[in-house]
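Bug report (template v2)

What were you trying to do?
Predict the complex of my protein with zinc ion.

What happened?
Run completed; filing so the output is reviewed.

Input:
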Amino acid sequence: MLLDEHTQPANLDTISKSQKEKGLMLHNVVYGQLKKWQPISKLLPRFVPVLDHGPEQRSESMNHSLVQNLLQMGWCIHHATRICRKQNTSVLRYLAGIKRTDVVGVSHDACSEQTCVAYHARIDDSYTVRHVQADCNCEFLTVPKDIVHRIAHGGGIPLVHPWTTPDGTIRLEVIEAIGSDRYIAISHVWADGLGNPTSNSLPRCQLQRLTRLLTKISDDLESGHGRHVLRVKKMWRSLIRKRAPLLFWMDTLCIPVGPNSEIARRRAIQRMALIYAGADGVLVLDHEHRFVDRRVESKEKLYARMLISKWNTRCWTLQEAVLARKLFWEFGQEIEILQPANMSSISRHSPAASQLISPGDGISQLLIKAVKAQVRTSDPGAVLVKSKKIGRLSLLNAEINFLGVWNELGQRSTTKINDIHVMLANLTDFSAGQIMAIPSQVERTKVMFFCHGSFPLDIMWNEGIRPDAGEDNANRWIPAIPGPEPLEDSTNILFTDVGLVFEPGLGPLPPQILVVERDPYSPYICLQYDDGPNQQWLRVECREVPDDKIQREMYHGSCYIIRGENAARFLIVNQQIPWHPQSDTLLLRYDCAASVRSVSKLALDGMAMPIVTANSQVAGRKIVIEHQQNSDTIAKIVRRSK
Ligand SMILES: [Zn+2]
Ligand SMILES: [Zn+2]
């Protein structure tokens, strides 16, 4: 879903106890066994990074040709590149047989390998709400807006009850959810035209379509998924039991919009994790699936379509997928169910062999495993990460969980980057209210990293938005939001009271550290250093930001931390030269990210760039990267599993 700029949840302190209890009551009933108040984080299924099954080792040219195959079928370059990184060759060859169709008006021409911008719907008057058929002109049906507003303002959850009058007219009622209500939450990508930025309404034809789909889901749920239950038994049930009313939640209808709705809207958004977790299931709508006939299409092709759906490429839908108890996918007029594995039963055993990719897997098994891993409903990693006390994470696991969410969100797209920390908090150990009460994105990221204690070194050269990169302060390295490249370096940086610390000599693959005493601070530079008896040369390209306020000449040299072709340049803050016998610490300020290439002496002649001598003898020195602590903020934020 998409949200506008009024999406920051209020500080938790502003929500009354009764509001909290109301929300939790629903949750408690949903989860049945709770005797006392527990924070939601302890109950929700955990997001975990996929223990990647694929891809196999592939050559660059092979990768290129697989991506090209997908592009020819109408894929977005970002999505094609991303899926090639994750899936094995037989899955990719299968996927390349599926022609992609986007909703009219959507184009991937402006997308890049790093990001897709095609589904960034404009949430203003120019947004087009779509009818089921392009030539339809039916009227819009509005939910009772004042009731939605009142419920949301009071911290409750509005649910829509659609019903049809004897003359076939559809009506929308709104009720406030109570614990025993069973409902379906609807999840969609706004670019498909099912949003509405100006009114809690949708065209009648779309509501008829939704009601039909929801009725099918309700039939399935009533009959224990229909397929295994005799028709007679189904009829008997319907005779002896009054059918539960059809209820659903959808952002377009249930999050107040319009003037004077800011507070109610903010509260409604704060409830979203709870709404998706408390629903019987989530109905996934993708325009591309509307014209697929589920009865004709093979099972594996349906799984393939779930796997490649644009629904998997958006940030908000990650939260909705992770929290869902079941996913109901629309295909044509029919529903296909994706049933998550029973996490609590799995957690008592070692990884189920059936969940790991095995050599004998046919394409159908490969696809179902891939799609379940994609939507995180069944993931062998969960078994490893979940500790024995259900839902509580050890420190290490909390960190793996956080990194998994960080990396996944970095590869997805959202129209409003301001929403990212809400999702990051909801899917990890933080309270979205507390995190969003911090005004700047940089500070939010910093606090979350700090609470985890450590993070991989590659954050220093990871591509991403660094709002403070041009400021002369210690926050220069901090990304506002996750970048497109996953963090996976084996060296960790630790947050300590003195700064960000890492021991260059530790770990199986220590990064290379080169110190330059008189650095001309050129964006292009060649570093010459001794590697044992041999001389080596590195061509370095520093990604300096324009109009940088830092005064490099005030520092005492520079330090390059290098991992393969990636690096970051730091400026030396302490006065003593680092290889001085009395100096055991190198205090650094982050300068910028860089790219590195090893070159031969011969190649140097053709390069018009300064060649400087670098010293690699810093082993044993502690490296401390300056860090501006904001202890007031950090003291207030406590990870929930602590
Ligand atoms: Zn795209
Ligand atoms: Zn219509």
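What did the reviewer find?
DSSP finds 21 helices and 20 strands in the chain. The first helix runs from residue 17 to 31.
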